[in-house]
Q: What sequence folds into this?
């Protein structure tokens, strides 16, 4: 008789059936494990709303986590009950969610962006220019495939962005030379990998079964490949993944410090700046919403407040004295 699978293995199986990313899998499994250990290794089927709220309160009060972190833990636990245990008692949808505080995004001026670029090493100039010039999220950048780049129409197709949505963004002509050089380097690396018996890349969802040879084609390769071949934690296959995002985060942070920009500058700051500068240039909010891939226009409206357009450019009474 086969051994009964461990509960966390069942969680991983359900997550993979739903085609969730490896990051979501790691986060959800981590929160569920912490929930079980917090309640002295009791089985989740024996617990309910009270135990969930005790755990979430512990995170907020004892661990002092942010509202977004607490809500991620809640999402993991709700997934566990609905998808793994396949129970949906009436209390599931009534669990109190932490209210996320409304924060204005940090935005750089155009001159600050230009100054920042002066301190970005040549090896990362293309990455940073695409983050700002296209309004990309960091993970959208590193996950770009060769076939997503269209020089003829000057566009980039962002596949499976936030909310699993595709969208198209502009490709600045000023990046063409750097991007073509990068793609040529990617092709060189791919050719070398094929000669060494590798060259396979991870394909989303079930495409590897539908198109068994597609994972070795150049079109599917990541534009920014990793420096080394690693073992896929899910399949156990050795292959080259996309570059790690931390190197870009570190580069931007160091460049901001050297440029003496006294703001918290991250890759996402460049996306905020992209949207704000488009708004400054007179582009309508709906166009910016589509370029950013926001589900609701209310999310995009935050940039009007950055420009004080939400207050219609009110002038302080101090100026009349």
A:
């Amino acid at each position: 008789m086969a051994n009964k699978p461990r509960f966390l293995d069942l969680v991983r199986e359900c997550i993979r059936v739903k085609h969730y990313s490896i990051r979501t899998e790691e986060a959800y499994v981590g929160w569920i494990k912490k929930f079980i250990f917090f309640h002295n290794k009791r089985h989740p089927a024996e617990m309910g709303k009270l135990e969930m709220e005790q755990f979430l309160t512990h995170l907020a009060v004892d661990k002092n986590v942010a509202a977004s972190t607490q809500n991620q833990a809640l999402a993991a636990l709700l997934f566990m009950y609905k998808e793994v245990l396949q129970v949906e008692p009436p209390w599931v949808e009534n669990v109190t969610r932490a209210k996320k505080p409304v924060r204005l995004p940090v935005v750089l001026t155009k001159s600050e962006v230009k100054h920042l670029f002066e301190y970005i090493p040549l090896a990362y100039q293309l990455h940073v220019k695409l983050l700002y010039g296209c309004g990309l999220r960091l993970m959208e950048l590193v996950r770009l495939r060769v076939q997503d780049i269209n020089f003829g129409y000057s566009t980039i197709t962002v596949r499976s962005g936030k909310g699993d949505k595709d969208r198209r963004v502009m490709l600045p002509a000023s990046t063409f030379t750097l991007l073509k050089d990068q793609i040529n380097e990617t092709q060189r690396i791919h050719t070398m990998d094929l000669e060494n018996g590798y060259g396979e890349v991870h394909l989303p969802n079930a495409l590897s079964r539908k198109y068994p040879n597609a994972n070795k084609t150049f079109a599917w390769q990541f534009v920014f490949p990793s420096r080394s071949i690693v073992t896929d934690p899910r399949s156990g296959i050795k292959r080259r993944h996309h570059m790690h995002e931390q190197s870009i985060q570190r580069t931007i942070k160091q460049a901001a410090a050297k440029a003496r920009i006294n703001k918290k500058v991250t890759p996402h700051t460049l996306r905020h700046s992209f949207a704000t500068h488009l708004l400054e240039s007179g582009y309508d909010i709906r166009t910016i919403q589509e370029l950013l891939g926001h589900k609701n226009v209310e999310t995009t409206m935050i940039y009007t407040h950055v420009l004080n357009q939400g207050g219609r450019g009110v002038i302080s009474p101090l100026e009349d004295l």
